[in-house]
Design goal:
Elements (H helix, E strand, L loop, with lengths): L11 H18 L13 E6 L5 H12 L3 E6 L11 H9 L5 E6 L4 H7 L6 E7 L5 H16 L13 E5 L6 H12 L3 E5 L15 E3 L2 H4 L5 E4 L15 H8 L3 H4 L7 E3 L12 H4 L6 H21 L14
Parallel strand pairs: 1-2, 1-3, 3-4, 5-6, 5-8, 6-7, 8-9
Helix pairs in contact: 1-5, 1-11, 2-11, 5-6, 5-11
The chain binds phosphoric acid mono(formamide)ester.
Phosphoric acid mono(formamide)ester binds next to helix 2.
Subunit structure: Heterododecamer (2C3:3R2) of six catalytic PyrB chains organized as two trimers (C3), and six regulatory PyrI chains organized as three dimers (R2).
GO molecular function: amino acid binding; aspartate carbamoyltransferase activity
Protein name: Aspartate carbamoyltransferase
């Protein structure tokens, strides 16, 4: 593939190759010089039209670890504020000689448009578009689950077959939920969505997952519980249920966490709203993988960049280190 737009575009073999390559990339982080010469002379633009902390910084870290030249663009402070279009912005970057564009955009479909419009030749990687997709988040989540629930060995068959994953909260506005449901299904996991009816998308019955409105009965049957943030910035009307009601019915606190099997993990893509979907006690517990997910994101993004721009089989033990 030339682009990464949607988790739905990945076959099981594609996904396992990315997870396995990310395991090799993670070994680079354990070396004294955390850098490979793989993308030397290649230019990657991080094109962010929406706010981000984890995704933007971890893509930049991944690109620098692969020795790419990195250009960071944020809509704030750019000519977008003067009315410049996505097409003109993209073509301005293309004129500077770009090999890959990592794009986050508030409009669902913007990365697909960029990849298929013919405006640019560069590889396009979706870093989150509207309520649609966030494929590298789903990949780093699957990587985290595989490490915690299956082990660090690689190869086909080392996937999440039969694992029971519960995703809780604002599914309606969540590109993370949509991407995870698709990728986890591809990897053989059984996914249950738990949400108030008002925060489920109309089309959810056709998704490859179960639906529940009862968190307490789902927790004991879960190997991983992924809490979602309530995305108030994407809501036009008053938030329903109220924050208090939401926390009471769908928030994860220590009492609820105790209902999970002992081996089960708590996940959160971040940013977390402590006290609403997750209490501070749960967020800071060793069972919560939120910080580990961020570290794993660098390895996954290195793997995606490497596979889209580089290509050949990769072995961290054999690869030379780049000078820092
Ligand atoms: N998980 C995630 O996409 O976080 P950011 O919005 O901080 O990038």
């Amino acid at each position: 593939q030339r682009h990464l737009i949607s988790a739905a575009d990945l076959t099981r073999d594609d996904a396992v190759l990315i997870l396995d390559t990310a395991e090799e990339m993670a070994r680079v982080a354990d070396r004294p010089i955390k850098k490979l010469p793989t993308l030397r002379g290649r230019t990657v633009v991080n094109l962010f039209f929406e706010d981000s902390t984890r995704t933007r910084i971890s893509f930049e870290a991944a690109e620098k670890r692969l020795s790419a030249d990195v250009i960071n663009f944020t809509a704030k402070g750019s000519s977008v504020s003067k009315g410049e279009s996505l097409k003109d912005t993209a073509q301005t970057l293309e004129a500077m000689g770009v090999d890959a564009v990592v794009i986050r955009h508030g409009a669902s479909g913007a990365p697909y448009r960029l990849a298929t419009s013919g405006w640019i030749d560069a590889a396009v990687i979706n870093a989150g578009d509207g309520t649609h997709q966030h494929p590298t988040q789903a990949l780093l989540d699957a990587f985290t689950m595989r490490r915690r629930l299956v082990g660090r060995d690689t190869g086909l068959g080392r996937d999440l077959a039969g694992k029971r994953i519960t995703i809780v909260g604002d599914v309606l506005h969540s590109r993370v939920a949509r991407s995870n449901v698709e990728l986890l299904h591809t990897l053989g996991a059984d996914v249950t969505l738990v949400a108030p009816p008002t925060l489920l998308p109309v089309g959810v019955p056709s998704w490859p997952c179960e639906i529940s409105y009862d968190l307490d009965s789902t927790l004991p049957k879960s190997d991983a519980v992924m809490m979602l943030r309530v995305q108030r910035e994407r809501m036009n009307a008053a938030f329903f249920p109220t924050e208090r009601e939401y926390a009471r019915r769908y928030g994860l606190d220590a009492d609820r966490m105790a209902k999970m099997p002992e081996h089960a993990i708590v996940m959160h893509p971040g940013p977390m709203v402590r006290g609403m979907e997750i209490t501070a006690e749960v967020a800071d517990s060793p069972r919560c993988t939120a910080v580990e997910q961020v570290s794993n994101g660098v390895s996954i993004r290195m793997a995606v960049l490497y596979l889209l721009l580089g290509g050949a089989a990769f072995d961290a033990k054999a690869a030379p280190e780049a000078a820092n």
